[in-house]
TrEMBL record:
<dbReference type="InterPro" id="IPR051010">
    <property type="entry name" value="BCAA_transport"/>
</dbReference>
<feature type="region of interest" description="Disordered">
    <location>
        <begin position="30"/>
        <end position="66"/>
    </location>
</feature>
<dbReference type="Pfam" id="PF13458">
    <property type="entry name" value="Peripla_BP_6"/>
</dbReference>
<keyword id="KW-0732">Signal</keyword>
<protein>
    <submittedName>
        <fullName>Penicillin-binding protein activator</fullName>
    </submittedName>
</protein>
<dbReference type="InterPro" id="IPR019734">
    <property type="entry name" value="TPR_rpt"/>
</dbReference>
<dbReference type="InterPro" id="IPR011990">
    <property type="entry name" value="TPR-like_helical_dom_sf"/>
</dbReference>
<keyword id="KW-0802">TPR repeat</keyword>
<feature type="compositionally biased region" description="Low complexity">
    <location>
        <begin position="30"/>
        <end position="40"/>
    </location>
</feature>
<feature type="domain" description="Leucine-binding protein">
    <location>
        <begin position="304"/>
        <end position="479"/>
    </location>
</feature>
<dbReference type="InterPro" id="IPR028081">
    <property type="entry name" value="Leu-bd"/>
</dbReference>
<dbReference type="Pfam" id="PF13174">
    <property type="entry name" value="TPR_6"/>
</dbReference>
<feature type="repeat" description="TPR">
    <location>
        <begin position="104"/>
        <end position="137"/>
    </location>
</feature>
<comment type="similarity">
    <text>Belongs to the leucine-binding protein family.</text>
</comment>
<feature type="signal peptide">
    <location>
        <begin position="1"/>
        <end position="25"/>
    </location>
</feature>
<dbReference type="InterPro" id="IPR028082">
    <property type="entry name" value="Peripla_BP_I"/>
</dbReference>
<feature type="domain" description="Leucine-binding protein">
    <location>
        <begin position="598"/>
        <end position="705"/>
    </location>
</feature>
């Protein structure tokens, strides 16, 4: 005999409920409702959450004439001493005759007086004790009602909800409505938002007048928008008829849940039903717009590109710089550019990304710049499957998914390029690191260190300093072993010799001899280069401090070296190369030279630093960009303009090709396969992680300015 068959198809609401329930199962906490999972009924007298009072009296009260007399006397006295004092009279009877019917009656009357005196804590204590002893007391119903409302008053909201909701099940008419209202209030304050929503929906269905109904539905909407969770909404709306006054509010919320989950099929089903059942509802215009947006999600404008930038707010200057480069790249093309102002706000970035995807049909999006904005855009890019080419420096942002690309100079790329140059081109093997205690400096120092070790080199010393520091004597001394002299054997031996030689001399001569010996202690320079990942102003102060400690950095000029030999009397000189990051780049000063050269002087000569763009580069593609930019804007571009220009030119090249992509998926594939794009920032290709790889600009500092290391000199340097 076969088991009866049944329709296995789930309704949209039930399917959502099932999916969300399964999703939350792993982190499910014990239910806060009054329903349990144990089907075994409680034994008589057992107290449980589902059965807060025993089913039989735990104390068998007996009649007692003396107790009755005492109760009568207390009642008479309480007429003239009401309130808490009157309650104490009844408690005295209770204490004297605890296991009598009069004692229980006294306990009830004490609870009533405490309740009426607004001493809700003592009222709860009295009623709880009474109901525990005798849940069948003649005034049990009144005691439970007062107990529930007393719990509500003192903030015992979960207890109040359990008591009041159980009473509401057996009440009728106006009393039931009041109990439900109190139960809903208690449930919400207890955090039981699903229960509060269910009660609010029930009350909306019971409303007698339009005004009551309107207020009740408004309460449902308030819970739906700010309190109740996805599962709560799905559970309540599952069996609700469309005629129910709260149905439109709940159903439209359900549609928005589907939208949030990107469940397009159920979204369209829910919205179509909503519009069929409630075409005139106040939410109907929003429902139609949401339905239209869902339909437009697959509609792509193959010549429309979105741009997410902070055009206002504290990052406004960044946004304006990138926008200048993007506009220059798209000038003369039929590519439509739609710019969205993120204001540097994560939420606005998310909204703008959705607008570009749904409303504008953008085939791809450029930007944003800031890390958190870019992460939000990248998550939506992957979710909506819209190619995103971001300008963020945040490491590993492309790991979010295959639709996320990045074209921007990163810390790791700089560290890799400068370490490769020093080790593979210059043959250096030992290094020191001097870095500011800030995110930029710490990340670059760590990345450089890792790259040196990976290439088989060593970092012999590392010192950090405050990001706003202006003197660097201590850090320089520490690098060469002149700070903790007591730990050096040659210094200890020198002290001993001075003490022997100046024995019997006055304190002044001893001090002078000691200072002379201390100054003659040789620096320990066991490194060939120092990496300083800091901005140019700080570098121009650090370099002279290194020279004071006999660290010779301007070693590329033979005449300078000869002068140093004559000055020091040393035939053999230990020289050190300074290495830097893109923060060394500076504007030109009054002399026409970069300010780094003006301020750092000879102490920064012979240094090399890395950057993602160099305005005076001799690379043809860079020169073409700089020339076009100067003609358009009458000024020099920076790194941001250059990367904005190249990113937009990449998209333009793909969109104007003979086999131009017609869909976002096709554009993603085309961008992933882009090789050797010749741009202002170098020949760019995307690797398997969708990171732009390109030879960076290695820049050499001399007293004549900053020049690019030629391709021949850097033939073995690694790419970006």
């Amino acid at each position: 005999m076969h088991a009866p068959t049944m329709d296995a198809r789930l309704s949209p609401c039930r399917a959502l409920l099932l999916a969300l329930t399964m999703l939350l199962a792993a982190c499910k906490t014990p239910s806060a409702t009054s329903s349990g999972t144990d089907s075994t009924p409680p034994s008589p007298g057992e107290v449980t959450q589902e059965n807060p009072f025993p089913t039989k009296p735990t104390v068998k009260a007996r009649p007692d004439s003396a107790a009755d007399a005492a109760l009568a006397q207390a009642a008479q006295q309480a007429q003239s001493t009401p309130g808490k004092k009157g309650a104490e009279l009844f408690l005295a009877v209770r204490k004297a005759y605890p296991e009598t019917t009069a004692g229980q009656e006294a306990l009830y009357r004490a609870g009533v007086l405490f309740y009426e005196s607004q001493d809700y804590a003592n009222a709860r204590k009295s009623f709880n004790e009474l109901l525990f002893e005798n849940p069948l007391h003649p005034e049990a119903a009144d005691a439970k009602l007062r107990l529930g409302r007393a719990a509500l008053e003192v903030g015992a909201y979960r207890d109040a909800y359990l008591m009041l909701s159980s009473l509401a099940e057996r009440a009728e008419g106006a009393e039931q409505v009041r109990l439900l209202q109190d139960s809903a209030k208690a449930a919400e304050k207890a955090g039981l938002y699903g229960q509060a929503l269910q009660i609010a929906v029930d009350l909306a269905g019971r409303a007698q007048t339009p005004e009551e109904q309107q207020a009740a539905v408004a309460r449902v909407q308030q819970l739906v928008e700010g309190r109740a969770g996805f599962v709560d909404v799905a559970r309540v709306v599952e069996d609700l008829p469309a005629s129910h006054p709260a149905w439109p509010v709940l159903t439209f919320k359900l549609a928005r849940i589907h939208y949030h989950l990107r469940d397009w099929t159920r979204l369209e089903e829910t919205l179509n039903r909503f519009l069929a059942e409630a075409p005139s509802h106040s939410f109907a215009p929003q429902a139609r717009e949401l339905l239209a947006r869902a339909t437009r999600r697959v509609e792509v404008q193959p010549r429309t590109v979105g741009l997410l930038l902070p055009m206002t707010g504290k990052y406004k200057a960044w946004g304006e710089a990138v926008l200048r480069g993007v506009k220059l790249a798209l000038s003369g093309s039929d590519v439509e550019l739609i710019v969205k102002d993120t204001q540097g706000d994560v939420n606005l970035t998310g909204q703008a990304m959705e607008q570009l995807a749904y409303d504008e049909g953008a085939i791809a999006v450029l930007g944003p710049i800031a890390s958190e904005d870019s992460r939000r855009a990248a998550l939506l890019s992957e979710e909506l499957q819209v190619p995103l080419l971001t300008f963020s420096r945040q490491e590993d942002i492309t790991a979010i998914g295959p639709y996320v690309f990045r074209n921007m100079l990163t810390n790791s790329a700089q560290a890799r390029a400068i370490a490769d140059y020093a080790m593979k081109e210059k043959g250096l093997r030992s290094f020191a690191v001097l870095y500011p205690n800030m995110t930029y400096g710490v990340e670059l120092a760590n990345d450089f260190w890792d790259q040196v070790v990976a290439n088989g080199g060593q970092v012999r010393g590392a010192e950090t300093y405050a990001h706003d520091q202006t003197t660097f004597t201590s850090e320089a001394k520490k690098l060469v072993g002149r700070y903790y002299l007591e730990d050096r054997g040659d210094y200890v031996e020198g002290v001993r010799e001075v003490q022997e030689q100046t024995s019997g001399q006055d304190a002044f001569r001893k001090r002078k001899a000691m200072e002379k010996m201390k100054g003659s202690v040789e620096p320990i320079i066991d490194f060939e280069a120092i990496f300083i990942p800091d901005e140019w102003r700080r570098v121009s102060l650090v370099a002279p401090a290194l020279a004071v400690e006999d660290i010779i950095t301007n070693a590329c000029d033979a005449r300078d070296l000869e002068r140093i030999r004559k000055t020091t009397g040393k035939k053999s000189l230990k020289t050190v190369m300074l290495l830097g990051s893109n923060a060394w780049s500076s504007a030109k000063g009054a002399s026409g030279l970069p300010e780094l050269v003006e301020r750092g002087g000879k102490f920064v000569n012979c240094s090399v630093y890395v950057d993602g763009f160099f305005v005076d580069s001799q690379r043809p593609a860079t020169q073409r960009f700089v020339k076009a930019y100067r003609q358009a804007y009458n000024g020099d571009p920076s790194l941001l303009e250059a990367y904005g220009y190249d990113s937009a030119r990449m998209l333009r090249q793909l969109l104007e090709s003979k086999q131009a992509p017609k869909s976002r998926a096709e554009l993603r594939e085309a961008l992933a396969n882009l090789k050797d794009f010749d741009g202002a920032t170098g020949k760019t290709s995307f690797d398997d992680k969708r990171e732009a790889r390109k030879p960076l600009f290695l820049l050499s500092v001399s007293n004549k300015g900053v020049t690019e290391v030629t391709p021949e000199q850097r033939a073995s340097v690694g790419d970006m």
